[in-house]
Amino acid sequence: MGGEGGVPHTGAMQVRLLGPVEVVSGGLVTAVPGLRRRALLAVLGLHPGRAVSSDQLIDAVWDDRPPATATNTLQRNISYLRELLGSKDAIVAKPAGYLLDIGGEATDVEQAERLISQGRQASSPHEAVRHLRAALALWRGRALADVAELRWLGEQARRLSHTEFEAIRALIDCRLALGEHALLVPELQQLVTARPFDEDLHRQLMLALYRAGQQAESLAHYQRLKRTLADELGIDPGQALRDLEAAILRQDSALDAPGSPVTVAPVPAVRAPAQLPLATAAFAARAKEIARLDAVMAEHSENVCLAVVSGTAGVGKTTLAVHWAHRARQSFPDGQLYADLRGFDRGGSVADPAAVLRAFLDAFGVPVEKIPADIDAQAALYRSVLAGKRVLVVLDNARDAEQVRPLLPGTPGCAVLVTSRYQLTALVTVEGAHPVMLELLTDDEAREVLVRRIGKDRVAGQEAAVQEIITRCARLPLALALAAASCVTRPDLPVGGVAEELRQSLGALEALQSVDSGTDIRSVFSWSYHALSPDAARVFRLLGAHPGPEFSAEAAASLTGMAPADLRAKLAELARANLLTQPKPGRYSLHDLLWTYAADLGRAEEGFPRLLDHYLHTALSAALLLNSHREPLAVPAPMPGIAPERLSTREQAASWFTAERAVLLGMVKRAAQQGFDDYVWRLAWAAQDHLDRCGHWGDQVLNQQAAIQSTKQLGDRAAQAHAHCSLSTAYARMARYAQAQSHLGHALDLYASLGDCGGQAKAEYQMGWLSNRQGEHAQAVGHARQALRLYRLAGQPMMAARTLNSLGWGYALSGDFARARPRCELALAQMRELGDLTFQAGTSDSLGYIYHHLGDFDLAIAYYQRALELFRELDDRYYEADTLKHLGDTHHAAGDDSAAGAAWAQALELLDLLGHPDAAQVRAKLTSSAAPSP
């Protein structure tokens, strides 16, 4: 790695100060025990190449208050550090004092300062970015984290924090010069939130927004900053910002994004994930717990750091975790992952660790086909992806240790923060997790929460009322937030009036069972609920019918039967009252206690069937957009007032399924529990293509298992057979072939009992596909023959044509190209007559493969070209790339390396754009073809 690396040479010794003080030698990290020893080593390390006098060392190490034995203790500590460093010569006694002398760059501070200097002097932005990123990677958290309590070292820690931030700022300027403005916008928005008065950061954000095509937002940001500076500091923006605003207004060409110089490295297909939810703006108190988390993370950089924040419902575990995670995110440059494990979900839909692993692997761009089915293998892949990275993982609302363990990274540098209502002692005992128990707030902390949320002016002179609110809310943060929200949304009501209303509602309802018996939280909910307008209260009650974890405004409109404009006003009222949150634009959620309370209030109202109708009709329309060849299901018209979401494109349908996946899983589960069997199997039918395409096979298994039970209850053998086929597909994707085969056998028997030739053909077709997946091509051919006979008997020409191609493909995989060719050619002719473009494209590709292996390269190229035209017409970029790869192979075999290189280059461009792993194979082909002949 030489001088460019972010870590010392293997085998070299170095003192690390950019985090806790430690020594690394030969790749092994050694902690330095004792505050005075760590401080002594840090002071020596911060004077590179210079001797430090004994008096200076004593003053710094003992904060100008040395004991009488300081000189002797200093000498003993010097001897100890020499032994720790492995040599008497590591700390040299000089007439002027002591000198740290371990050769090379003795500390990571020296290394970072060199890299930053090289970055500032670099001849190109690309080179500067490389140096600056290497420098910033050396920070392992707050510099001098475990000695910063000492005055002189605390000053040095602040200096090094300033150095880190200046490097971040310089890196941003270089990335702007490289045209990374769009990538920088969210990062800069987070930075200006943390440093609201740093005008240079605001300059960078305005420029990034402007270059990203958001001129109006750039100017609006300037106006917001101008108001903030005037209100908070009584000043105007500096000249540089004023000049930038003027340049944006006149659209000065000097602000335009740079071109793409040849020295610029390609932007990675997948950025570091940044999944943290929005932090609470008015976060207050919890200073002790924040300090505890800071200390835990700072002290354990040599291994995976794991902390568990536990406490009762509504005590603020998630708020604390998200707040701390935002504070610490700069220490985890490779990403921040977040998952709500829903361990205490009222509907029992606890998050499956396998589904969370899938989502985390997706966040790092791991393609579906590279993700194994077995959870242990998924966890191993996840640990491999995170190896060598600094990633923060926040696991919210965990039920038990078993839910958490598969999600733990395996190498140093990563940190995991877990929240749970349980203490998860198994993680503490086995994995060495650090427990952080979150108690109810103290009176002072509760008062700080109210002051921060309501404002000092509102609470001035209202001490008795504030104390009563604190008492009535039992010092529970969730209840205090509700009380504060009522004050904020009703500015004319004195704080004493809020306390009086809360007093009158006390005892109106029994305490929730999920909260300590001494905390009458439900009375607080009741008070907030009764303060709503009648329409908003009705919306809140009806929302209790939703399974969560989130819902859209459209779903709420169907649930309530309200016009969207009227509903939005009521949702806004609920949000102002803190009875509703908006975790992302257009999506809403309730705290689980509030959802329980709303469900209890709304027991008499039949909201769930309306939700079922909304999701079923929307899901069916989305399913047909994803796959236009599916035969629509016959379902009754929607209930009055139900407004299914309007989706018009395949992309919109896919986005809707992605957003609603967890909701649909919850709807299927609850519908099965409550006996809505007609909805169960239809919802499972609608979701199956999306779940299969995106690799959510665990969800598919749960859905289709529920569908099989519901269709048995209904006595609908045709729907039951279809569910068996769909379940078989999911099991096959997970390489559980015996179960896949068993369910296909059940489906075949059911279709045979109905005399359904088309259904039997479908089962046989899938058996052929299953056989090919297992390399049993002779069996696949037999199943395809049987499926073809049955499809023809059933009068389904399109499926017969598709099966004919499947038969030809089975012969091709067996190496019998003489039999494969006529069957695929006939299939293609029939598909042209039927207008089946999708399988025309696939069959043309099959014929290209067949003719290539028959040695007719010209005809193979012609078929590949036709497949390309069709895949482009269908906007299927992966199969376009796949066909280009095959086309390149044929050109290469024909001796036309120039055409082969052109096809492979086009394929590589598409695969890189998709972030697909096949890109590596194509890149290797290009490299090999470009190599000179021996």
From TrEMBL:
Placement of TPR repeats on the sequence: 841-874
Keyword Transcription in annotation: yes
Gene Ontology MF: a single term: DNA binding
All copies of domain OmpR/PhoB-type, residue ranges: 5-102
Biological process annotations from GO: phosphorelay signal transduction system; regulation of DNA-templated transcription
Membrane-spanning residues: none
DNA-binding region as annotated in the record: 5-102
InterPro entries in UniProt: AfsR-DnrI-RedD_regulator, BTAD, NB-ARC, OmpR/PhoB-type_DNA-bd, P-loop_NTPase, Sig_transdc_resp-reg_C-effctor, TPR-like_helical_dom_sf, TPR_rpt
CDD domains: BTAD (cd15831)
Pfam family, one: NB-ARC
Keywords associated with the record: DNA-binding, TPR repeat, Transcription, Transcription regulation
Superkingdom of source: Bacteria
Record family assignment: Belongs to the AfsR/DnrI/RedD regulatory family.
Protein name in UniProt: SARP family transcriptional regulator
